[in-house]
Amino acid sequence: MSYVKAEYVLPREILRLVQEYADGQYLYIPKKEGTRKNWGENTSYKTQIKQRDKEIYRNYINGFTTAELAEEYYLSQKSIQRIILNEKRNANK
Length: 93
What we know:
Layout: H1 6-9, H2 12-22, H3 45-61, H4 66-73, H5 77-91
Helix pairs in contact: 3-5, 4-5
């Protein structure tokens, strides 16, 4: 995210009004509702995590222990257990 000078994008009247409330301060202006993207939509990270979780579940079914999986994927055993539980629930849907 980069900064844009308000004087470049806001009409002079609105800029003066904003200065009444936040003169010289940095402001974050959120996107309008409905234009926001969900987490992971800009990258393939969300897809990669889903694939990793399915792989963890397959390995668990094939006999790997949660301790082995935690070491292999650099996660805590609690995280591995959560992933396995979520994948079990998804498989039963």
